[in-house]
Amino acid sequence: MILPWIELAGVAFFAVSGALAAGRKSLDLLGVVVIAWVTATGGGTLRDLLLDRPVFWIEKPQFLVVALLAALLTVPYVRFARPPEKLLLLADALGLALFSILGAQISIALGKPGLISVVMGTITGAFGGLLRDVLCNEIPVILQKGSIYATAAISGCALMVLLLHFGVQGPIAAGAGMALVAVMRIAAIVFGLTLPVFTLPEDRRS
């Protein structure tokens, strides 16, 4: 069962994170909108292309409107109120949770296997942020050393797939998956949690 509000909320949160990232690079208003749109639609666009289905924002342009409004409302907010230092990461975490589960839901609805659905969910949640960071000339969060980002998306999508497999109702499974993604990502931000880092031993040849 695809929850219709997930996509709208995910687009809004990712657009906010894109607008904040653009603001930190002192881009003009057009730059803010472009980065917000790319962040909000990048993951879903790649998902739809891979699943050979109509691209969601072409079929429903209201998603572009939501992204635009979220970006434009972010601009005056940061003008009059200094945003918390980690607001960008928190907005991105909420977008990640919502979009990851949505991507997995769409894949499941199309009859794809559980593993493919987890991959599609991860792509939906993570790819827009990757594009945002690349366009803003930053190391993508997903590639930062030890970052719990894609891992959170994978874990939440896998939990939802398992719950559905064992007969849990769709909304409950989706809610549990979103909660796990959000908790893992926010905990990583707040407490500085990271994954173990694999490092090759130094060459000790004489």
Tell me what you see in this structure.
With 206 residues, this protein is mainly α. It is 72% helix and 0% strand. α1 packs antiparallel against α5 (87-109), α5 (87-109) packs parallel to α7 and α6 packs antiparallel against α7. The longest helix has 23 residues, at 87-109.
Key traits:
single chain, 206 residues, 0% strand, mainly alpha, globular
Show the helix and strand layout.
Blueprint: H1 4-24, H2 29-50, H3 56-59, H4 62-80, H5 87-109, H6 114-135, H7 150-165, H8 170-191
- Based on Cα principal axes, name the global outline: globular
Question: Poorly predicted ranges (pLDDT <50, ≥5 residues)?
Answer: none
Classify the secondary structure makeup into a structural class: mainly alpha
Determine the fraction of residues in helical runs and give it as a percent range. over 70%
Multimeric organization: single chain
Whole-angstrom Rg: 17 Å
* Proportion of residues in β-strands: under 5%
Largest β sheet strand count, sense and barrel closure = none
Q: Could you tell me the mean pLDDT? A: 89
The span between the termini is 62 Å
The tally of helices reads 8
Q: Count the strands? A: 0
Order of helices and strands: HHHHHHHH
Summarize the structure.
By secondary structure, this protein is mainly alpha-helical. The chain is built from eight helices and no strands.
